[in-house]
Amino acid sequence: xxxxxxxxxxxxxxxxxxxxxxxxxxxxxxxxxxxxxxxxxxxxxxxxxxxxxxxxxxxxxxxxxxxxxxxxxxxxxxxxxxxxxxxxxxxxxxxxxxxxxxxxxxxxxxxxxxxxxxxxxxxxxxxxxxxxxxxxxxxxxxxxxxxxxxxxxxxxxxxxxxxxxxxxxxxxxxxxxxxxxxxxxxxxxxxxxxxxxxxxxxxxxxxxxxxxxxxxxxxxxxxxxxxxxxxxxxxxxxxxxxxxxxxxxxxxxxxxxxxxxxxxxxxxxxxxxxxxxxxxxxxxxxxxxxxxxxxxxxxxxxxxxxxxxxxxxxxxxxxxxxxxxxxxxxxxxxxxxxxxxxxxxxxxxxxxxxxxxxxxxxxxxxxxxxxxxxxxxxxxxxxxxxxxxxxxxxxxxxxxxxxxxxxxxxxxxxxxxxxxxxxxxxxxxxxxxxxxxxxxxxxxxxxxxxxxxxxxxxxxxxxxxx
Length: 466
What we know:
This protein has helices at 216-230, 243-257, 276-291, 310-324, 327-333, 351-366, 369-380, 391-396, 415-424, 447-464, and strands at 103-111, 117-128, 138-142, 169-170, 175-176, 181-185, 234-235, 237-241, 261-262, 264-268, 401-407, 432-434. It is α/β, with parallel strands linked by helices. It has 2 domains: 71-93 and 281-379, Rna Polymerase Sigma Factor, Chain: A (Orthogonal Bundle), CATH 1.10.1740; 103-276 and 390-464, Alpha/Beta hydrolase fold, catalytic domain (Rossmann fold), CATH 3.40.50.1820. One of its GO terms (cellular component) is cytoplasm. The active site is at 242 (nucleophile), 410, 440.
Protein backbone atom coordinates (compact mmCIF):
# COMPACT_ATOMS: atom_id res chain seq x y z
CA UNK A 1 0.00 0.00 0.00
CA UNK A 2 1.25 3.48 -0.82
CA UNK A 3 2.51 5.47 2.18
CA UNK A 4 -0.28 7.56 3.64
CA UNK A 5 -3.05 5.74 1.79
CA UNK A 6 -6.14 4.67 3.64
CA UNK A 7 -6.59 0.91 4.08
CA UNK A 8 -8.25 -0.68 1.11
CA UNK A 9 -11.38 -2.72 1.32
CA UNK A 10 -11.25 -6.48 0.90
CA UNK A 11 -11.10 -7.74 -2.66
CA UNK A 12 -14.48 -8.71 -4.03
CA UNK A 13 -15.19 -12.33 -4.97
CA UNK A 14 -15.12 -13.44 -8.59
CA UNK A 15 -18.06 -12.72 -10.84
CA UNK A 16 -18.98 -14.06 -14.25
CA UNK A 17 -20.08 -10.70 -15.65
CA UNK A 18 -17.94 -7.80 -16.74
CA UNK A 19 -19.93 -4.63 -17.41
CA UNK A 20 -18.77 -2.51 -20.35
CA UNK A 21 -17.95 1.17 -20.37
CA UNK A 22 -18.68 3.43 -23.30
CA UNK A 23 -16.17 6.15 -22.46
CA UNK A 24 -14.51 7.34 -25.67
CA UNK A 25 -10.72 7.41 -25.87
CA UNK A 26 -8.98 10.72 -26.34
CA UNK A 27 -6.65 10.61 -29.30
CA UNK A 28 -4.75 13.90 -29.46
CA UNK A 29 -1.95 15.10 -27.18
CA UNK A 30 -2.40 18.79 -26.34
CA UNK A 31 0.71 20.59 -25.13
CA UNK A 32 0.52 22.99 -22.23
CA UNK A 33 0.35 26.75 -22.82
CA UNK A 34 3.58 27.96 -24.35
CA UNK A 35 4.78 24.51 -25.31
CA UNK A 36 5.60 23.50 -28.86
CA UNK A 37 4.36 20.12 -30.12
CA UNK A 38 6.42 17.19 -28.88
CA UNK A 39 8.79 15.40 -31.23
CA UNK A 40 8.87 12.19 -29.23
CA UNK A 41 6.94 8.96 -29.72
CA UNK A 42 5.35 9.18 -26.30
CA UNK A 43 6.16 11.15 -23.23
CA UNK A 44 8.56 8.54 -21.89
CA UNK A 45 10.68 9.31 -24.93
CA UNK A 46 11.13 12.96 -24.24
CA UNK A 47 13.43 14.58 -26.76
CA UNK A 48 10.91 17.28 -27.60
CA UNK A 49 10.82 20.99 -28.27
CA UNK A 50 8.39 21.95 -25.56
CA UNK A 51 10.60 24.69 -24.17
CA UNK A 52 10.71 26.79 -27.30
CA UNK A 53 9.44 30.37 -26.93
CA UNK A 54 5.69 30.54 -26.99
CA UNK A 55 2.67 32.35 -25.55
CA UNK A 56 2.65 32.97 -21.85
CA UNK A 57 0.45 31.38 -19.24
CA UNK A 58 1.39 32.89 -15.93
CA UNK A 59 0.95 31.26 -12.54
CA UNK A 60 2.04 31.94 -9.01
CA UNK A 61 5.57 30.81 -8.26
CA UNK A 62 5.51 27.16 -7.22
CA UNK A 63 1.98 26.55 -8.52
CA UNK A 64 1.28 24.09 -11.34
CA UNK A 65 1.01 25.93 -14.66
CA UNK A 66 0.09 22.97 -16.83
CA UNK A 67 -3.27 22.70 -18.52
CA UNK A 68 -6.06 21.87 -16.13
CA UNK A 69 -4.34 23.19 -13.01
CA UNK A 70 -6.89 24.86 -10.74
CA UNK A 71 -7.36 28.54 -11.48
CA UNK A 72 -7.56 29.23 -7.74
CA UNK A 73 -3.79 28.68 -7.56
CA UNK A 74 -3.05 31.60 -9.87
CA UNK A 75 -1.78 34.82 -8.27
CA UNK A 76 -0.99 36.58 -11.56
CA UNK A 77 -3.61 36.80 -14.31
CA UNK A 78 -2.63 34.75 -17.37
CA UNK A 79 -1.72 36.74 -20.49
CA UNK A 80 -3.33 34.02 -22.60
CA UNK A 81 -6.20 31.79 -21.46
CA UNK A 82 -5.54 28.27 -20.29
CA UNK A 83 -6.96 25.60 -22.62
CA UNK A 84 -10.71 25.30 -22.32
CA UNK A 85 -10.84 21.52 -22.72
CA UNK A 86 -10.77 20.03 -19.21
CA UNK A 87 -8.58 17.04 -18.46
CA UNK A 88 -10.53 13.76 -18.03
CA UNK A 89 -10.61 12.18 -14.58
CA UNK A 90 -8.56 9.30 -16.02
CA UNK A 91 -6.63 8.64 -19.20
CA UNK A 92 -7.14 4.89 -18.79
CA UNK A 93 -8.31 2.70 -21.64
CA UNK A 94 -11.72 1.28 -20.78
CA UNK A 95 -13.83 -1.50 -22.35
CA UNK A 96 -15.86 0.12 -25.10
CA UNK A 97 -12.95 2.33 -26.19
CA UNK A 98 -11.30 1.73 -29.55
CA UNK A 99 -8.97 -1.27 -29.03
CA UNK A 100 -6.48 -0.33 -31.73
CA UNK A 101 -3.94 -3.15 -32.08
CA UNK A 102 -4.62 -4.55 -28.61
CA UNK A 103 -5.62 -8.15 -28.09
CA UNK A 104 -6.95 -9.53 -24.85
CA UNK A 105 -6.75 -12.79 -22.96
CA UNK A 106 -8.51 -13.73 -19.74
CA UNK A 107 -5.99 -15.40 -17.43
CA UNK A 108 -8.36 -16.19 -14.57
CA UNK A 109 -7.98 -15.36 -10.90
CA UNK A 110 -4.59 -14.37 -9.49
CA UNK A 111 -3.54 -15.35 -6.00
CA UNK A 112 -1.45 -12.37 -4.98
CA UNK A 113 1.59 -12.29 -2.73
CA UNK A 114 -0.44 -10.19 -0.30
CA UNK A 115 -2.75 -13.17 0.28
CA UNK A 116 -5.60 -11.48 -1.58
CA UNK A 117 -7.32 -12.74 -4.69
CA UNK A 118 -7.59 -10.60 -7.82
CA UNK A 119 -10.46 -12.15 -9.77
CA UNK A 120 -11.08 -12.42 -13.48
CA UNK A 121 -7.82 -10.88 -14.67
CA UNK A 122 -7.42 -9.71 -18.25
CA UNK A 123 -4.07 -9.08 -19.94
CA UNK A 124 -3.93 -6.75 -22.94
CA UNK A 125 -1.09 -7.33 -25.37
CA UNK A 126 0.14 -6.75 -28.90
CA UNK A 127 2.10 -9.03 -31.22
CA UNK A 128 4.27 -8.68 -34.30
CA UNK A 129 5.61 -11.38 -36.60
CA UNK A 130 4.61 -15.04 -36.70
CA UNK A 131 5.26 -17.84 -34.22
CA UNK A 132 7.27 -20.67 -35.75
CA UNK A 133 5.75 -24.14 -35.95
CA UNK A 134 7.99 -25.26 -33.08
CA UNK A 135 7.29 -22.03 -31.13
CA UNK A 136 11.02 -21.35 -30.84
CA UNK A 137 11.24 -17.74 -32.05
CA UNK A 138 9.25 -15.84 -29.40
CA UNK A 139 10.54 -12.63 -27.80
CA UNK A 140 8.88 -10.87 -24.86
CA UNK A 141 9.17 -7.08 -24.51
CA UNK A 142 8.26 -5.51 -21.15
CA UNK A 143 7.43 -1.82 -20.78
CA UNK A 144 8.43 0.79 -18.21
CA UNK A 145 6.25 2.61 -15.66
CA UNK A 146 4.01 4.67 -17.93
CA UNK A 147 4.43 2.56 -21.05
CA UNK A 148 2.01 0.06 -22.51
CA UNK A 149 1.75 -2.71 -25.08
CA UNK A 150 2.07 -0.34 -28.06
CA UNK A 151 5.78 -0.88 -28.57
CA UNK A 152 5.74 -0.46 -32.35
CA UNK A 153 3.23 0.94 -34.78
CA UNK A 154 1.65 4.25 -35.71
CA UNK A 155 -0.53 6.49 -33.62
CA UNK A 156 -4.21 6.16 -34.39
CA UNK A 157 -7.52 5.08 -32.91
CA UNK A 158 -6.80 3.43 -29.59
CA UNK A 159 -3.17 4.59 -29.57
CA UNK A 160 -2.46 8.20 -28.71
CA UNK A 161 1.19 7.99 -29.76
CA UNK A 162 3.40 5.89 -32.03
CA UNK A 163 5.18 2.92 -30.52
CA UNK A 164 7.59 3.81 -27.76
CA UNK A 165 10.39 1.52 -29.08
CA UNK A 166 9.59 1.99 -32.75
CA UNK A 167 13.23 1.97 -33.86
CA UNK A 168 13.95 -1.29 -32.06
CA UNK A 169 11.13 -3.54 -33.26
CA UNK A 170 9.91 -4.20 -36.78
CA UNK A 171 10.95 -5.71 -40.11
CA UNK A 172 14.73 -5.46 -40.36
CA UNK A 173 14.97 -3.77 -36.95
CA UNK A 174 17.28 -5.01 -34.17
CA UNK A 175 14.37 -7.14 -32.94
CA UNK A 176 13.42 -8.26 -36.42
CA UNK A 177 9.77 -9.20 -36.77
CA UNK A 178 10.58 -11.02 -40.02
CA UNK A 179 12.47 -13.50 -37.80
CA UNK A 180 10.81 -13.28 -34.41
CA UNK A 181 7.35 -13.45 -32.91
CA UNK A 182 7.29 -10.47 -30.56
CA UNK A 183 4.83 -10.12 -27.67
CA UNK A 184 4.35 -7.01 -25.53
CA UNK A 185 1.80 -7.10 -22.68
CA UNK A 186 0.39 -4.23 -20.68
CA UNK A 187 1.33 -4.85 -17.06
CA UNK A 188 -1.32 -5.86 -14.52
CA UNK A 189 -2.01 -2.78 -12.42
CA UNK A 190 -1.60 -0.60 -15.49
CA UNK A 191 -4.31 1.29 -17.32
CA UNK A 192 -4.10 0.41 -20.99
CA UNK A 193 -6.21 -2.71 -21.23
CA UNK A 194 -4.89 -5.08 -18.58
CA UNK A 195 -6.70 -5.35 -15.25
CA UNK A 196 -5.90 -2.39 -13.05
CA UNK A 197 -7.54 0.11 -10.71
CA UNK A 198 -9.58 1.69 -13.52
CA UNK A 199 -10.99 -1.70 -14.55
CA UNK A 200 -14.42 -2.77 -13.44
CA UNK A 201 -14.52 -5.00 -10.37
CA UNK A 202 -17.06 -7.84 -10.24
CA UNK A 203 -19.65 -5.45 -8.81
CA UNK A 204 -19.50 -3.36 -12.00
CA UNK A 205 -17.77 -0.37 -10.42
CA UNK A 206 -14.12 0.54 -11.07
CA UNK A 207 -11.76 -1.03 -8.56
CA UNK A 208 -10.42 2.36 -7.53
CA UNK A 209 -9.29 2.39 -3.89
CA UNK A 210 -10.22 -1.30 -3.55
CA UNK A 211 -7.59 -2.48 -6.00
CA UNK A 212 -5.20 -4.76 -4.12
CA UNK A 213 -1.45 -4.30 -3.93
CA UNK A 214 0.37 -6.14 -6.70
CA UNK A 215 4.06 -6.99 -6.81
CA UNK A 216 6.44 -7.51 -9.69
CA UNK A 217 6.12 -11.25 -9.08
CA UNK A 218 2.32 -10.99 -9.29
CA UNK A 219 2.66 -9.17 -12.61
CA UNK A 220 4.97 -11.84 -14.01
CA UNK A 221 2.58 -14.56 -12.81
CA UNK A 222 -0.10 -13.01 -15.05
CA UNK A 223 2.35 -12.79 -17.95
CA UNK A 224 3.23 -16.46 -17.52
CA UNK A 225 -0.44 -17.29 -18.03
CA UNK A 226 -0.44 -15.10 -21.14
CA UNK A 227 2.50 -17.10 -22.51
CA UNK A 228 0.65 -20.33 -21.81
CA UNK A 229 -2.44 -19.02 -23.59
CA UNK A 230 -0.33 -18.11 -26.63
CA UNK A 231 1.30 -21.53 -26.72
CA UNK A 232 4.75 -20.15 -25.91
CA UNK A 233 6.81 -22.61 -23.88
CA UNK A 234 10.15 -20.94 -24.49
CA UNK A 235 11.24 -17.32 -24.88
CA UNK A 236 14.24 -16.74 -27.11
CA UNK A 237 14.75 -13.35 -25.42
CA UNK A 238 12.96 -11.46 -22.64
CA UNK A 239 13.90 -7.79 -22.66
CA UNK A 240 12.85 -4.65 -20.81
CA UNK A 241 14.15 -1.39 -19.44
CA UNK A 242 13.53 0.47 -16.18
CA UNK A 243 10.41 -1.09 -14.59
CA UNK A 244 10.37 -3.57 -17.46
CA UNK A 245 13.82 -4.73 -16.42
CA UNK A 246 12.50 -5.65 -12.98
CA UNK A 247 10.04 -8.04 -14.60
CA UNK A 248 12.74 -9.43 -16.88
CA UNK A 249 14.73 -10.53 -13.83
CA UNK A 250 11.70 -12.15 -12.22
CA UNK A 251 10.89 -13.88 -15.51
CA UNK A 252 14.39 -15.39 -15.53
CA UNK A 253 13.53 -17.23 -12.29
CA UNK A 254 9.76 -17.67 -12.36
CA UNK A 255 9.47 -18.70 -16.01
CA UNK A 256 11.52 -21.91 -15.66
CA UNK A 257 9.76 -22.67 -12.37
CA UNK A 258 6.50 -22.76 -14.37
CA UNK A 259 7.89 -24.78 -17.27
CA UNK A 260 8.62 -21.85 -19.60
CA UNK A 261 12.24 -21.70 -20.68
CA UNK A 262 13.97 -18.33 -20.86
CA UNK A 263 17.02 -18.67 -23.10
CA UNK A 264 18.28 -15.10 -22.83
CA UNK A 265 17.41 -11.86 -21.08
CA UNK A 266 18.10 -8.19 -21.72
CA UNK A 267 18.08 -5.89 -18.69
CA UNK A 268 18.43 -2.22 -19.61
CA UNK A 269 18.81 0.65 -17.14
CA UNK A 270 17.37 -1.39 -14.28
CA UNK A 271 18.35 -3.12 -11.06
CA UNK A 272 17.95 -6.13 -8.80
CA UNK A 273 16.28 -4.25 -5.94
CA UNK A 274 14.92 -0.77 -5.33
CA UNK A 275 17.43 1.59 -3.74
CA UNK A 276 16.89 4.07 -0.94
CA UNK A 277 17.41 6.91 -3.39
CA UNK A 278 14.68 5.58 -5.69
CA UNK A 279 12.30 5.18 -2.75
CA UNK A 280 13.05 8.74 -1.69
CA UNK A 281 12.28 10.15 -5.15
CA UNK A 282 9.06 8.12 -5.34
CA UNK A 283 7.77 9.34 -1.99
CA UNK A 284 6.86 12.92 -3.04
CA UNK A 285 5.33 11.58 -6.26
CA UNK A 286 2.98 9.41 -4.24
CA UNK A 287 2.27 12.27 -1.83
CA UNK A 288 1.40 14.65 -4.68
CA UNK A 289 -1.32 12.33 -5.96
CA UNK A 290 -2.73 11.52 -2.53
CA UNK A 291 -2.86 15.25 -1.64
CA UNK A 292 -4.86 16.22 -4.73
CA UNK A 293 -8.49 16.83 -3.63
CA UNK A 294 -9.54 15.39 -6.99
CA UNK A 295 -8.07 12.03 -5.96
CA UNK A 296 -11.04 11.45 -3.64
CA UNK A 297 -9.35 8.61 -1.83
CA UNK A 298 -8.87 6.77 -5.11
CA UNK A 299 -12.53 6.72 -6.19
CA UNK A 300 -12.69 9.50 -8.78
CA UNK A 301 -13.79 7.69 -11.93
CA UNK A 302 -17.21 9.30 -12.01
CA UNK A 303 -15.77 12.80 -11.52
CA UNK A 304 -16.50 15.30 -14.28
CA UNK A 305 -13.70 16.23 -16.65
CA UNK A 306 -11.44 18.73 -14.97
CA UNK A 307 -12.21 17.49 -11.45
CA UNK A 308 -10.05 14.37 -11.28
CA UNK A 309 -6.55 14.02 -9.83
CA UNK A 310 -4.71 15.33 -12.89
CA UNK A 311 -2.87 18.05 -10.94
CA UNK A 312 -1.37 15.57 -8.47
CA UNK A 313 -0.58 13.13 -11.26
CA UNK A 314 1.07 15.91 -13.23
CA UNK A 315 3.24 16.97 -10.30
CA UNK A 316 4.26 13.36 -9.76
CA UNK A 317 5.27 13.17 -13.40
CA UNK A 318 7.31 16.36 -13.13
CA UNK A 319 9.26 14.98 -10.17
CA UNK A 320 9.84 11.70 -11.94
CA UNK A 321 10.76 13.32 -15.22
CA UNK A 322 13.56 15.28 -13.60
CA UNK A 323 15.11 11.93 -12.59
CA UNK A 324 14.69 10.58 -16.12
CA UNK A 325 16.96 13.25 -17.60
CA UNK A 326 20.47 14.32 -16.64
CA UNK A 327 21.57 17.51 -14.91
CA UNK A 328 23.97 18.21 -17.77
CA UNK A 329 21.21 17.99 -20.36
CA UNK A 330 18.74 20.17 -18.46
CA UNK A 331 21.40 22.82 -17.84
CA UNK A 332 22.78 22.84 -21.36
CA UNK A 333 19.41 22.55 -23.08
CA UNK A 334 17.46 25.00 -20.95
CA UNK A 335 19.70 26.68 -18.40
CA UNK A 336 18.02 29.79 -17.05
CA UNK A 337 16.27 30.76 -20.28
CA UNK A 338 12.78 32.21 -19.66
CA UNK A 339 9.85 30.56 -21.42
CA UNK A 340 8.86 32.68 -24.41
CA UNK A 341 7.79 36.13 -23.32
CA UNK A 342 7.43 35.15 -19.68
CA UNK A 343 9.37 36.96 -16.97
CA UNK A 344 10.34 34.78 -13.97
CA UNK A 345 10.70 37.95 -11.88
CA UNK A 346 6.99 38.61 -12.46
CA UNK A 347 5.53 35.17 -11.97
CA UNK A 348 6.56 33.73 -15.30
CA UNK A 349 8.30 30.43 -15.94
CA UNK A 350 11.71 29.34 -17.05
CA UNK A 351 11.83 27.21 -20.18
CA UNK A 352 12.64 24.08 -18.17
CA UNK A 353 9.49 24.64 -16.11
CA UNK A 354 7.41 24.84 -19.28
CA UNK A 355 9.05 21.59 -20.41
CA UNK A 356 7.97 19.85 -17.21
CA UNK A 357 4.47 21.37 -17.42
CA UNK A 358 4.17 19.97 -20.93
CA UNK A 359 4.98 16.44 -19.83
CA UNK A 360 2.70 16.70 -16.82
CA UNK A 361 -0.19 17.55 -19.10
CA UNK A 362 0.63 14.81 -21.61
CA UNK A 363 0.69 12.11 -18.98
CA UNK A 364 -2.58 13.25 -17.39
CA UNK A 365 -4.30 12.79 -20.75
CA UNK A 366 -3.20 9.18 -21.20
CA UNK A 367 -2.59 7.67 -17.78
CA UNK A 368 -4.40 6.93 -14.55
CA UNK A 369 -3.45 8.22 -11.09
CA UNK A 370 -4.32 4.98 -9.30
CA UNK A 371 -2.23 2.99 -11.77
CA UNK A 372 0.66 5.36 -11.18
CA UNK A 373 0.41 4.58 -7.46
CA UNK A 374 -0.03 0.84 -7.92
CA UNK A 375 2.89 0.48 -10.30
CA UNK A 376 5.16 2.78 -8.31
CA UNK A 377 4.46 0.71 -5.21
CA UNK A 378 5.22 -2.50 -7.10
CA UNK A 379 8.58 -1.02 -8.03
CA UNK A 380 9.31 0.08 -4.47
CA UNK A 381 8.76 -3.45 -3.14
CA UNK A 382 10.91 -5.02 -5.85
CA UNK A 383 13.71 -7.16 -4.44
CA UNK A 384 14.89 -10.12 -6.49
CA UNK A 385 16.58 -11.54 -3.41
CA UNK A 386 13.49 -11.52 -1.19
CA UNK A 387 12.93 -15.05 0.15
CA UNK A 388 15.74 -16.26 -2.13
CA UNK A 389 18.76 -15.80 0.12
CA UNK A 390 19.62 -12.27 -0.99
CA UNK A 391 20.27 -10.57 -4.30
CA UNK A 392 23.60 -12.16 -5.15
CA UNK A 393 22.29 -15.66 -4.49
CA UNK A 394 19.13 -15.01 -6.48
CA UNK A 395 21.16 -13.75 -9.42
CA UNK A 396 23.36 -16.82 -9.23
CA UNK A 397 20.26 -18.97 -9.85
CA UNK A 398 19.57 -17.38 -13.25
CA UNK A 399 20.45 -19.79 -16.06
CA UNK A 400 19.62 -17.50 -18.97
CA UNK A 401 22.35 -15.79 -20.92
CA UNK A 402 22.18 -12.10 -20.10
CA UNK A 403 22.72 -8.77 -21.79
CA UNK A 404 22.97 -5.89 -19.29
CA UNK A 405 22.99 -2.31 -20.55
CA UNK A 406 23.53 0.84 -18.49
CA UNK A 407 23.28 4.53 -19.39
CA UNK A 408 26.32 6.44 -18.22
CA UNK A 409 24.35 9.56 -17.19
CA UNK A 410 21.45 7.68 -15.56
CA UNK A 411 20.71 9.10 -12.11
CA UNK A 412 17.68 6.90 -11.44
CA UNK A 413 19.14 3.44 -12.09
CA UNK A 414 22.82 4.13 -11.63
CA UNK A 415 25.39 2.37 -13.82
CA UNK A 416 26.58 0.69 -10.62
CA UNK A 417 23.15 -0.99 -10.31
CA UNK A 418 23.59 -2.49 -13.78
CA UNK A 419 27.21 -3.42 -13.10
CA UNK A 420 26.03 -5.41 -10.09
CA UNK A 421 23.79 -7.45 -12.37
CA UNK A 422 26.51 -8.10 -14.90
CA UNK A 423 28.88 -9.11 -12.13
CA UNK A 424 26.60 -11.68 -10.49
CA UNK A 425 24.55 -13.10 -13.37
CA UNK A 426 26.48 -16.30 -14.20
CA UNK A 427 25.96 -16.13 -17.98
CA UNK A 428 26.13 -12.37 -18.44
CA UNK A 429 28.03 -10.79 -21.30
CA UNK A 430 30.30 -7.88 -20.33
CA UNK A 431 28.37 -4.79 -19.25
CA UNK A 432 27.46 -2.48 -22.14
CA UNK A 433 27.16 1.24 -21.50
CA UNK A 434 25.24 3.80 -23.58
CA UNK A 435 27.01 7.17 -23.77
CA UNK A 436 24.28 9.75 -23.46
CA UNK A 437 23.54 13.20 -22.10
CA UNK A 438 19.87 12.25 -21.75
CA UNK A 439 20.07 10.30 -18.50
CA UNK A 440 17.75 7.38 -17.80
CA UNK A 441 15.72 8.15 -20.93
CA UNK A 442 18.76 7.25 -22.99
CA UNK A 443 17.21 3.80 -23.54
CA UNK A 444 14.39 5.56 -25.42
CA UNK A 445 16.66 7.84 -27.42
CA UNK A 446 20.09 6.33 -28.11
CA UNK A 447 18.94 3.79 -30.68
CA UNK A 448 22.08 4.26 -32.76
CA UNK A 449 23.95 2.66 -29.86
CA UNK A 450 21.34 0.33 -28.37
CA UNK A 451 20.22 -1.13 -31.69
CA UNK A 452 23.62 -2.58 -32.66
CA UNK A 453 24.13 -3.90 -29.12
CA UNK A 454 20.86 -5.85 -29.24
CA UNK A 455 21.47 -6.97 -32.85
CA UNK A 456 24.89 -8.33 -31.93
CA UNK A 457 23.59 -10.12 -28.85
CA UNK A 458 20.71 -11.77 -30.72
CA UNK A 459 23.06 -12.83 -33.50
CA UNK A 460 25.32 -14.49 -30.93
CA UNK A 461 22.30 -16.19 -29.39
CA UNK A 462 21.22 -17.46 -32.81
CA UNK A 463 24.61 -19.09 -33.27
CA UNK A 464 24.43 -20.63 -29.79
CA UNK A 465 20.99 -22.02 -30.53
CA UNK A 466 22.06 -23.93 -33.65
